[in-house]
Design goal:
The protein contains 23 helices and 16 strands. Helix 13 packs across helix 23, helix 16 packs parallel to helix 18 and helix 17 packs across helix 19.
């Protein structure tokens, strides 16, 4: 047996003016789950505690709650000391019990006809990744789009794709999905990261539904314009100033000291065309830290804007051009700065080379310590870096070498999934929410590692927004300034 102390959310809408937390200490067996702790509280301390459970084996979804802010199944999550247990981010009926009915009622059901055929094995194989949902609604509780739009949510989209693949269904589920907010998803991937069945809703449902919608002519007008631009120019944004690839004359950039590693640099559309100065800052940081950089000039858009919006006709051409640009130079490691590009190259390509984000490169090979700057920063986790690539600690390790870091919740800024271009009002609403969180931190600057996030967030905060590379370079410039001011005398 072991003693566990937990903090539990309490709220009875019929009696309490507002929610509050109660602290409980109970004894449970080693290896006990959160559900066992709730049982102990209910049976031994406070029988008024309300929570929901059924199977106790991770198959029904009834016991979904948040532990330290993250949705989990209480019956599967190991109990740890000093955790906080809260309900899902849904309407609370009492304590940890939320109202599931409004969401469950929106999930479409199969409508067969006598003329429909039975699913073949290939149909069943296509449906299989989508049918293991236990309707716990963890995904719904973390969906940012549902907070600011009438989007029915990820589990509704999962069901729409499941029905679209089923030959027995006679309804037009694609048009229905578009009407239910298909294009409001920001591709933040929060839904499948909290899914206890690991259903990859963004990639397996939403992007495929968007592809089917494209074939029916239902793609948003602005998304069509982006696809046309990619096909015409090879880039997803228009040229408005000299590009990074134009400003860098040499294909090979040598470091200032001994060579630690050689990487090919996949620049991406935004750093090439909108934020070239940031990419130049990154080159300076890499040179200072022994990284030789090869920059193929024939590289083009990675195709992420097309994949996320379901426009796949030109995608294979982009992939082949990019792969060939690096493969022909015998490059073993390709570095990305853009979170979206990195996630796309890692997950949507089959590359003959390793793909690493710049934060992975710099922490892998180590950096010269920069000077510390007397400011406080907060870090915005790009969705395609944190959830798309699993990169959380490396950016923070680099930032803390330059400034004091204050954390804020890792929520979507609203710039992904084609939402900023196709549905700017939704993107602005999510950007405003991000700006409010930034203000709460009291930070002097915002740091991120994604051009879309940096560009979007800068319009929703009065704080300067920096890329990690730019922050590091500022630290190096301060170090050099101090060294010049106070030279070492031998």
């Amino acid at each position: 047996m072991k003693e566990i102390t937990v903090k539990v959310y309490r709220y009875n809408p019929g009696e309490d003016a507002e929610p509050y937390f109660e602290t409980y200490t109970v004894n449970v067996n080693e290896g006990a789950r959160v559900l066992h702790v709730l049982h102990a509280i209910h049976d031994e301390v406070d029988p008024t505690l309300a929570y929901r459970y059924s199977c106790g084996s991770g198959q029904c979804g009834s016991c979904a709650v948040r532990v330290n802010g993250e949705p989990v199944l209480a019956c599967m999550e190991e109990a740890r000391n000093n955790i906080t247990i809260e309900p899902l981010n849904l309407s609370v009926k009492k304590d940890l019990v939320v109202d599931l009915v409004p969401t469950l009622e929106t999930i479409a059901s199969l409508k067969p006809s006598e003329a429909s055929r039975l699913p073949t094995k290939s149909d069943i194989d296509a449906i299989k990744p989508l049918r293991s949902c236990i309707e716990c609604l963890s995904c719904v509780s973390v969906c940012p789009a549902m907070d600011v739009t009438k989007f029915l949510g990820p589990t509704a989209m999962r069901q729409e794709m499941r029905l679209a693949l089923d030959p027995r269904n006679i309804d037009d589920r694609i048009t229905a999905a578009v009407q239910e907010g298909l294009f409001t998803c920001t591709s933040c991937q929060a839904c499948w990261k909290v899914c206890p069945k690991e259903i990859q809703i963004p990639g397996k449902a939403i992007e495929k539904l968007r592809s089917l919608a494209n074939k029916k002519g239902l793609t948003l007008p602005r998304h069509k314009e982006v696809a046309a631009l990619v096909k015409e120019t090879g880039r997803s944004v228009a040229r408005t100033e000299p590009t990074f690839l134009e400003l860098v004359n040499a294909e090979v950039i040598e470091p200032t000291g001994p060579v630690k590693a050689t990487v090919g640099f996949f620049v991406g559309c935004m750093y090439n065309l909108r934020l070239p100065r940031t990419a130049l800052d990154a080159i300076e940081v890499l040179r200072r830290n022994g990284i030789r950089v090869i920059i193929p000039k024939e590289q083009v858009c990675c195709g992420s804007p097309l994949i996320r919006t379901g426009q796949l006709e030109y995608l294979e051409t982009l992939k082949q051009r990019n792969i060939d640009a690096f493969r022909f130079r015998n490059i073993d490691t390709v570095m990305t700065m853009c979170a979206g590009c990195g996630s796309t190259l890692k997950h949507d390509y089959r590359t003959p080379f390793e793909v690493l984000d710049i934060n992975e490169i710099l922490t892998k090979f180590g950096i010269e310590p920069p000077a510390r700057l007397p400011i406080k920063a907060t870090y915005h986790d790009p969705c395609h870096l944190l959830r798309g690539q699993g990169i959380r600690d490396q950016p923070r390790e680099l930032i803390r070498q330059v400034v004091d870091l204050v954390e804020m919740p890792s929520i979507c800024c609203g710039s992904g999934g084609g939402v900023k271009s196709g549905l700017p009002e939704e993107a602005a609403a999510l950007g405003k929410r991000r700006g409010e969180e930034i203000k709460k931190t009291g930070a002097d600057i915002v740091v991120s590692s994604c051009p879309f996030c940096e560009f979007h967030i800068s319009g929703h905060t009065d704080k300067p927004v920096r890329n990690i590379s730019t922050l590091l370079l500022e630290g190096y410039k301060e170090k050099d300034r101090k060294k010049k001011k106070n030279p070492v005398v031998h």
